[in-house]
Design a protein that fits this description.
mainly alpha, 2 domains, 5 helices, 100 residues, two-stranded antiparallel ribbon
Length: 100
């Protein structure tokens, strides 16, 4: 749904036609309403133990309301047909790259 919305937005920005604008707005509204429904469903199915403890509550709720979040994705690089995912090796490669 989001990819379709983005595609329609790009199309509207490119040709500035009324039909493109209506199609984009319709898809945008569909995405927003779907997102709201899923958020309601998520919070209604939330474990009650996570709500009673203050720290657990904010760890659970904050990602839904904030665009900022703690990224826990590890960096994976491919160097000379070799996959490198170790933090030390990745940092060494970045150091070599940015130092030269």
């Amino acid at each position: 749904m989001v990819m379709t919305r983005s595609r329609l937005k790009n199309k509207f920005l490119k040709d500035k036609k009324v039909e493109s604008k209506i199609a984009y707005q319709r898809q945008r509204n569909l995405c927003v309403s779907s997102f709201r429904k899923e958020k309601i469903k998520y919070f209604s199915n939330m474990n009650i133990k996570n709500v009673t403890d203050n720290k657990k509550y904010w760890r659970t709720v904050k990602p839904a309301f904030s665009e900022k979040g703690v990224a826990t994705n590890n960096i994976t690089l491919v160097e000379n047909n070799e996959i490198i995912s170790s933090d030390k090796e990745v940092s060494k490669l970045f150091n070599i790259f940015f130092a030269t």
